[in-house]
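One-letter codes give the sequence; backbone shape is given numerically. An example follows:

. . .
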Amino acid sequence: MDPRPDFPTTQWTLVMRVRHGGEVCRVALQELCSLYWYPIYVFLRRQGYAPHHAEDLTQGFFIKLLNDESLAVADEAKGRLRTFLLQHLKRHLVDQKRFDHALKRGGATQTISFEEEHAEERYAREPLDLRDPERLFSQAWARELIGGVREKLRADFDDTKRPEAFEVLLPFLLLDDEPPTYREVAARLRATEVSVRLMVHRLRVKFRALLRDEVARTAGSSADIEAELEWLKSVLCQP
């Protein structure tokens, strides 16, 4: 077992689709990018790379994975994909001269639009006292996953009488800050405390179900799912 939380396991099914080539490959690569581009960008920024250089390296890393068929030799039986990606990213950083040549040769090929994603604005909100790039990667990935689950939960939330209810109840779910009292929420939503407690309970149950479904897409067996949920908890609880 790893001595501390490491990179999260991602979807091996996406790797298989990248190997197929064509439109399936392009869509799968885009999904891999959506899962990993920001954590990789954060990792590079914490390594000391300037914003524009970190963008180029992140872009080039995904292009390299596709162009040199690195994913074609990835083997789920040999370990977690997170270890595979970490090894290849470090090699990518060491080989600067070949990277620069490949980037120029690649021309306008892009997989990520950093202007749309506001990478540096997000990075500015990362904790300044966290010096370990790998731990920062882990925390960024975990927040990305939780953020995706939150948006799915928002889309599923249905309360036409109280359209503002989801945002009001959200602090009970994420616990980033001290949530308000049930009495305060009841007054804001013009509901009873009993109904507010029921809404919070239902929201938490639905969130846990969506989170488990999302983790199931990245893990294999039930044991892997439980281990990944514990990994998420340990990472998100880190100061």
